[in-house]
Amino acid sequence: MTSTLRTSLGRNDSAAADAAAPTRGWWSSPARGARRWRVIGGTAAGLALAAVVWSLVAATNVFPRQLFPTVPQIVRAGHTLWSDGLLLPDVGASLQRALLGWGVGGLAGIAAAIVTSNTRTGRSLLQPVLRLLAPVPTIGLVPLAILWFGLGENSKILVVALGVFVPVWMNSHSGFAGTPADYLQAARCLGASRWQTLTRIVIPEAVPDVVAGLRVGAAMAFVLIVVAEMTGTTAGIGYRIYQAQLFSQADRMIFCLIVLGVLGAVCDLLIAALTTPFVRWAREVR
Prior knowledge:
Elements: E1 5-7, H1 13-20, H2 30-59, H3 71-83, H4 87-118, H5 120-133, H6 142-149, H7 153-177, H8 181-189, H9 194-228, H10 237-246, H11 250-275, E2 282-284
Antiparallel strand pairs: 1-2
Helix pairs in contact: 3-11, 4-5, 4-7, 4-9, 4-10, 6-7, 7-9, 9-10, 9-11, 10-11
């Protein structure tokens, strides 16, 4: 999986000015502020279009109303969860599990990528094993995680961490292994040690790929939290979706899926914002 971040070799003057003034707020940059307003406007328009299309399909009555609820029904289901005091505890429980799993899986993936891309032992021994395990669906490991760690929190965090580990490792390994040979040769000629080469050349060059892996891993965490919370818990968005499926509450199920999507999008934006200072020499291709 290649990174969605590319080096900006031909940036225009406004983008270069933004990068050269990291202390300014984004509202003080007209070009940057305009880009964000375009993103906000496009997101709002896309959501409105999706709601209109959904309403039109529901109005045709092709599908039973119980299985294909209208937008007002979905909103009422969310209001019921809120008024019953279930929504916030569910969101809090799922966020905690997803973030813990993302942190553990992300750190493990980055560490493994450093080993597999920069050491001969890692390339010859560890990398083949990881490539063999990467295609194994994480959902299939849920019974094994429950068998090892029971129905408690550890098994849920393990499932999420394993799912996050794979994309983080693959992207990070690609970034570390893709360091231009000219850079490495120049470092050797200048007498740089292996540690200096790793910390000053390899890691900075691979940061965009690492960030891309972390963002994909965050999305994967919210996908897997649904599966992880279907057993051995009484709180969480995944648990609420499972309960809605048992009682054929499509409106509640769809609302919970929307909540998961919002949480994943917000986390992705936060990761992108927090890592921007480390990738100012790169820009995201939109």
